[in-house]
Amino acid sequence: MKSPTPVPEVRCLGATQNHDHFDVTNEPAASQLLAWRCRVGHVIDVLPSSSAANLPFNASIDRYKLGNRTFTDCSSDRLLLDRSVARISTDNNRDYVFQVYTEGGIESIEGAGLERRSPASASIMVLDLNQPIRMLRSRCRVLTFFVPRPVVEQVLPHADSIHGRVFESKTPLTHLMIEHVAALSKSLPGMTENEAVQAFDVGIQLMLGAFAKQAKLSGNVRAAARSAVFDKARRYVKENLYQPWLTPESVLAALQLPRATVYRLFQNEGGLGRYIINRRLREAADELVRYPDRQIIEIAYSLGFNSASDFTRAFRRHYGMPPQDHRFMVMQKMNAQG
For residue 169, what is the DSSP state? Predict the structure, then answer.
């Protein structure tokens, strides 16, 4: 008797390494917000108020990797989120992010090139991770698509112009998109990767079509020019970070850029000078861990700080702790993991 042909195993996303789940409820109440900040910090910074830092905080996230696409289902309490110029200059996240709010929404949005505004409700919004943004988000559930830049820019020639745009739930198309995405999130754990990719792409095509119609982007080169100037200034700062003469004036003089334009791009950082300081502090934080035997004062001087006290004061203001505590905390965490 002929043996039956083996049936290939079909694995669902919920049973593979393509899916991971994180919930802060397993953390002590006073550490829940910090744990969440660490979890999402590779993409965006959580800015807790001093009064809220040690209070109980509710948040959870399911993340699905679909090839070069990522989908997340996240619920959290009210948060202030910030993707700053300093953060953009130090990571490689350049996707477009489409967020679908099934509960709650955005209370306010601001960023370089964006007017500060408070939408009444935000059912769908898009972010360009190559541009800064700060947003206050109510307690919410948000379903998020991380989409590679070429996919978006193939449909929208000046896609960076849609950064920060929102769709409120007032049209049949918006309701259709929300229903599709909510169904995707519910069904995703039982889907194969191919099925999930197809459903993901349908959702993205719906949103891209809607944003293209809303944005009316033909001939809009202003955002592209702004993005190019922004990148040029950031690259110059990064390349000259260890030069003691690096100042806002030296950047303007070297690049021959209009003062008003550059300062407007960096306004969310408190100006170009503040951006340079924050960028140096980020580099210092990395060096404190990368070179554990190097004296803190040497790191401070190499990055343009005039004294140990100036450096410690600036570091504490930016990171909420002195540099020696940052080094100790990170090294302890690395040793525990290793």
Answer: S
With contact defined as beta carbons under 8 Å apart, do 58 and 91 qualify?
Answer: no
DSSP, residue by residue, 66-111: ETTEEEEEEEESSEEEEE-HHHHHH-----EEEEEEEE--EEEEEE
Residues 171, 231, single domain; the answer is no
Rounded Cα–Cα distance for residues 282 and 272 (Å)? 15
Give the C-alpha separation, 284 to 291, whole Å: 10
* Backbone conformation region of residue 16, classed left if phi is above 0, alpha if psi is from -120 to 50, else beta: beta
Range of the domain at 287: 222-337
Taking the C-alpha atoms of residue 283 and residue 289, their distance in angstroms, rounded to an integer, is: 10
Distance CA 274, CA 309 (A): 18
Determine, yes or no, domain membership for 1.
Answer: no
d(CA 165, CA 98): 10
pLDDT tens digits, one per residue of 199-256: 898 888 888 877 777 655 443 445 545 666 777 788 889 899 999 899 999 999 888 8
- Rounded Cα distance between 239 and 233, Å, is 10
First to last CA, the chain: 54
| Cα-based distances in Å from 298 to 276, 301, 312, 335 | 19, 5, 13, 24
> Do 288 and 327 share a domain, yes or no?
yes
